[in-house]
Design goal:
The complex is a heterodimer of chains A (262) and B (413). Chain A is an alpha+beta fold. Chain A contains eight helices and ten strands. Chain A is globular and about 85 Å long. The mean pLDDT of chain A is 90. The longest helix of chain B is centred in the middle third of the chain and has 28 residues. Classes of the chains: A alpha+beta (262), B mainly alpha (413).
């Protein structure tokens, strides 16, 4: 008969503790592998990033294809014609209903571009946004090769062009980039950074929200902190089926698309 | 009469190369002046002819490390003359690769960033470090050969130094071998890790790159040696060695074809988004000639047969054609591997609206600079072959009758 009342020996204790630890780790691993990883809120909770978890939600049901987000981005970030940061693609649903997909940078949590840059010119900010250091970029364009979404554009020439959208859809808020470096959508990080100083909240206050979301006439594009259940982005996600582009790559984009109804 | 006699064919050749180099310089000036906007590259096809040139230069220089390893690590002293040619080709090849990269990057003034700002996760960072380190190894290996020039005889101290460096040849061979094994395969890795492009994202990429590089690098060395012997009417390397290397390359090519076969067919069962389209663009699309004719049939199968049979039949002609086809196959492979990735749409991404192939044809500036780089390397190579005592060789006795087991010809340097 085993005496369950006696105290454990040191050896038994160590064995038990180790066994429990390994068992728990294995159980957690099994549990994690069954979790659905496409859930935006879960993604916001799981990440190691502290503070707000910026995300953008694009409602394909609401988007009317007016191009305003494209123009506002071009004006605000002073991008070059033909090398836009935010583009619009026309497509159709299965039932031949027109659908307009706009595509900014996904600001992936597992960003292929960040991994491949030989000089760390593209990097994750502490808040998780993927940004460019134009002073460090050597222009090798490996990030353009690596980006699964084709969001990156190169400064092929010295800029001297006139921006047709300036004055109509906004004014440039950032400098033009020099010749020979790669650039891409920043989620208007300059607005997010300025917000902290001016006590504004990105997503709520227009001056602190990406230009493309501010201008959208149908509120198809909203921005905000996915950890904040009241933020416009979180509210837009509530009760809707969302998808990310090329989810199978495991890049964990921060741009979530709400599917059109049939 | 005297004027006619002074027209040495060598100097005509040099003048011809200088004209090409001038053309290259004009093109390079255009590129540096007006930026990459004047090339045929675009956001859709960010890498093109220059990257092909870079990859080909490095691939064809692989003879340097592999033949050095055979000579100094496996102790096959008879390979020494061939290894010296390979090392000289290697130094020039890597110079060409570095020139191509300087042209290709948008900010050539920041070429040094790779050494200062490290991203150890990046394949390209690894390649940058490796090729610059290996370039210095090659410099050290070639330095004693240059110091043998009678012109430099009065610099006795440097000569002694060069002699000491030469004694460390086995050490340099080990360092060169490690660095080369690293970057020759991680150049394939540069493509292999690109998860977003189905045409590239395959684990076999580094393996295919290094095997093809060793095969083509060795046969390039053999090919060039044969050309120099034919033009200069001298013997640099005994034919037996050349045939042996040729046969080895032939076997390596068969291994390469075997791996390529499984790599391609294993992915062809069922539909894989992007990958299936990529394979069809490669095999039936605009790259079909480059893939089937150059990489598979001429540069692969036929080259392997010729190289293996050349030794049995003692046929210099077969060896020359076979080794030439092998290097053409490598250039074709690097060309369509690079361009296939970009001309094919990003599978399910809405980034590209056009489901067809993105067009790319190199601009004249790209051709001009590429021709200039190749001409510059050829000029340096020609001068080296003519003047460096290491490559004096011995007067050729017979061009068509190779002697199997002679060691008399090579110990001249």
């Amino acid at each position: 008969m085993t005496d369950y009342t006696r105290e454990l020996t040191r050896r038994e204790f160590v064995r038990l503790a180790l066994g429990l630890g390994v068992g728990l780790a294995a159980a957690d691993w099994v549990w994690q592998s069954f979790r659905v990883h496409n859930d935006p809120h879960a993604q916001a909770e799981e990440t190691s990033i502290e503070g707000p978890y910026w995300g953008m939600v694009i409602d394909l049901d609401r988007c009317i294809g007016c191009h305003r987000c494209v123009y506002a981005c071009q004006a605000t970030n002073d991008t070059q014609e033909g090398h836009l940061w935010n583009i619009l693609i026309e497509d159709q649903t299965t039932f031949e209903k027109p659908v307009f997909i706009t595509r900014p940078c996904m600001h992936c949590e597992n960003a292929p571009c960040v991994n491949v840059c030989p000089v760390h010119a593209t990097y994750h900010r502490p808040d998780g946004l993927v940004e460019m250091d134009y002073d460090r970029c050597i222009g090798c364009r490996y990030c353009m090769v690596a980006c699964p979404y084709g969001v990156r554009v190169f400064n092929w020439t010295e800029r001297s062009d006139e921006n047709p959208q300036v004055g109509v859809w906004g004014t440039p808020e950032v400098q033009r980039r020099p010749r020979g470096v790669v650039e891409k959508c920043t989620f208007c990080a300059h607005r997010i950074d300025a917000a902290a100083e001016r006590n504004l909240r990105p997503g709520y206050d227009r001056a602190a929200t990406p230009a493309c979301c501010v201008i959208c006439p149908t509120e198809a594009r909203v921005f905000g902190d996915l950890r904040d259940p009241e933020s416009p982005a979180s509210r837009a996600l509530d009760g809707r089926q969302s998808v990310v582009l090329r989810a199978e790559l495991g890049t964990k984009p921060r741009v979530f698309y709400l599917l059109p109804r049939a | 009469m005297a004027a006619v006699r002074r027209l040495n064919p060598f100097w005509i050749w040099v003048c011809f190369l200088i004209v090409l180099i001038l053309f290259g310089l004009v093109s390079a000036f255009q590129v540096f002046m007006y930026g990459l906007g004047i090339t045929g590259l675009s956001d859709g096809v960010p890498w093109g002819l220059w990257i092909t040139l870079d990859l080909s230069c490095i691939g064809l220089s692989a003879g340097a490390f592999s033949l050095s390893a055979i000579t100094y690590l496996l102790g096959r002293e008879t390979y020494k003359p061939l290894a010296r040619v390979a090392v000289f080709i290697g130094l020039l090849g890597y110079s060409g690769a570095l020139m191509a990269l300087i042209l290709d990057i948008g900010r050539p003034d920041r070429f040094w960033h790779g050494w200062v700002f490290w991203n150890t996760h990046s394949m390209l960072w690894e390649v940058t470090m490796c090729i610059t380190l290996y370039f210095s190894v090659l410099l050290l290996e070639v330095f004693p050969m240059v110091m043998e020039l009678p012109l430099l005889a009065r610099f006795t101290r440097i000569r002694t130094l060069a002699h000491h460096i030469h004694r460390f040849a086995p050490v340099l061979a080990v360092i060169g071998l490690s660095l080369s094994l690293l970057h020759q395969s991680s150049l394939g890795g540069t493509y292999g890790v690109v998860i977003g492009r189905a045409a590239l994202f395959r684990a076999t990429m580094p393996l295919l790159f290094i095997v093809s590089a060793v095969a083509a690098g060795m046969s390039f060395t053999v090919h060039i040696t044969l050309l120099v012997q034919w033009v200069g009417r001298r013997t640099l390397v005994p034919n037996a060695i050349l045939f042996e290397v040729g046969q080895f390359v032939g076997g390596l090519l068969l291994i390469y074809l075997y791996m390529r076969f499984w790599d391609t067919t294993a992915g062809s069962y069922g539909y894989v988004p992007g990958r299936t389209e990529a394979d069809s663009v490669l095999m039936r699309g605009p790259f079909a000639v480059s893939f089937w004719a150059w990489e598979m049939i001429l540069g692969g199968l036929l080259a392997a047969i010729l190289l293996i049979r050349a030794r049995f039949q003692s046929s210099i002609l077969m060896l020359t054609i076979g080794s030439g086809l092998t290097l053409a196959g490598l250039v074709a492979n690097r060309w369509h591997t690079t361009l296939l990735a970009f001309t094919q749409p990003l599978s399910t991404s809405p980034a590209l609206t056009d489901p067809l192939v993105t067009p790319y044809s190199p601009a004249w500036t790209e051709w001009g600079t590429a021709i200039g780089v190749v001409a510059g390397l050829t000029l340096l190579f020609s001068l080296g072959m003519r003047y460096l005592p290491a490559f004096k060789g011995s007067a050729q006795e017979s061009t068509s009758l190779p002697v199997r087991s002679t060691n008399t010809a090579q110990e001249s340097a």
